[in-house]
Amino acid sequence: MRKLVYYVAATVDGFIAGPRGEFDFFPMHSDLLAAMNAEQPETVPTAFRAQAGLADAPNLRFDTVLMGRGTYEPALKEGITSPYAHLRQYVFSRTLAATDPEVEIVTDDPVGFVQRLKQQPGKDIWLCGGGSLAGQLLPEIDELMVKRYPVMVGSGIPMFDAPFRPAPLSVAGTRTFGSGASVVTYTWA
Ligand SMILES: NC(=O)c1ccc[n+]([C@@H]2O[C@H](COP(=O)([O-])OP(=O)(O)OC[C@H]3O[C@@H](n4cnc5c(N)ncnc54)[C@H](OP(=O)(O)O)[C@@H]3O)[C@@H](O)[C@H]2O)c1
User: Fold this and answer.
1) Hey, which of 92, 114, 149, 160 would you mutate to test ligand 1's pocket, going by the most ligand atoms within 8 Å of its Cβ?
2) What CA–CA distance (Å, rounded) separates 49 from 57?
3) CA-to-CA dists, residue 103 to 76, 92, 96, angstroms
4) What digits encode the pLDDT tens for the residues 47-101?
5) Residue whose CB lies within 8 A of the most ligand 1 atoms, among 24, 133, 183, for a mutation test
6) Ligand 1 centroid vs 129 CA: distance in angstroms?
């Protein structure tokens, strides 16, 4: 069955964006960027694929992306209505009207929706974010892939907006980069 993978960039203190959605504090480490572009080219937004030499790159791991409205909105504000045109795009929102024929707005319960998606054939499903959607989808996340950058912000949008519920995880893989960033893959213990 296809997996739901939360693949996300985070600070050392567990934030995926600043309190107002800031993200320019994430350093652009070329070693991590090169590895990720090679291994998950489909996670590069359509607008940046040509300049990254990925214009025609095939989808290697994911063919579907899930976003909360808070994750989709920064692109929308820039006039980009289809940020990952090479993927099937689902945006969860109860307030957004249709924005683009390539983007499906979902009002259903995220857990049930993902359970149905997993029954369909296809590659793995990328949960792009954000913390609110990830918190609700926690029971359906099969793998957590954290790109951890050596930076702290103190407060912001957490990786998960979820109740206090400790859960042991297994580390399925760790990679560290000369720049100080790491990519750690976790599964449920
Ligand atoms: N560092 C990274 O890799 C990374 C990745 C992704 C996102 N981000 C950042 O994270 C921030 C967004 O995260 P967030 O936690 O604030 O928001 P979010 O999870 O992206 O979106 C929250 C919105 O999703 C909709 N939603 C949530 N639950 C729903 C449900 N059950 N049914 C239907 N719609 C539902 C609601 O939209 P409505 O209010 O319209 O109903 C809600 O306001 C942004 O700043 C983004 O840039 C960072």
Assistant:
1) 92
2) 8
3) 11, 10, 11
4) 999 999 999 999 999 999 999 999 999 999 999 999 999 999 999 999 999 999 9
5) 133
6) 6
Residue 76 DSSP code: H
Q: How far is the CA of 77 from the centre of ligand 1 (A)?
A: 15
State the pTM of this model.
0.98
Rounded to the nearest angstrom, the distance between the alpha carbon of 68 and the centre of ligand 1 is 3
- Domain 1-17+57-164 is classified in which CATH homologous superfamily? Dihydrofolate Reductase, subunit A (3.40.430.10)
Residue 84 vs residues 11, 58, 90, 126, 135: alpha-carbon distances, Å: 24, 13, 10, 11, 22
Report the SS3 class of residue 157. strand
14: left (phi over 0), alpha (psi -120 to 50) or beta: left
Return the domain boundaries, the chain: 1-17+57-164
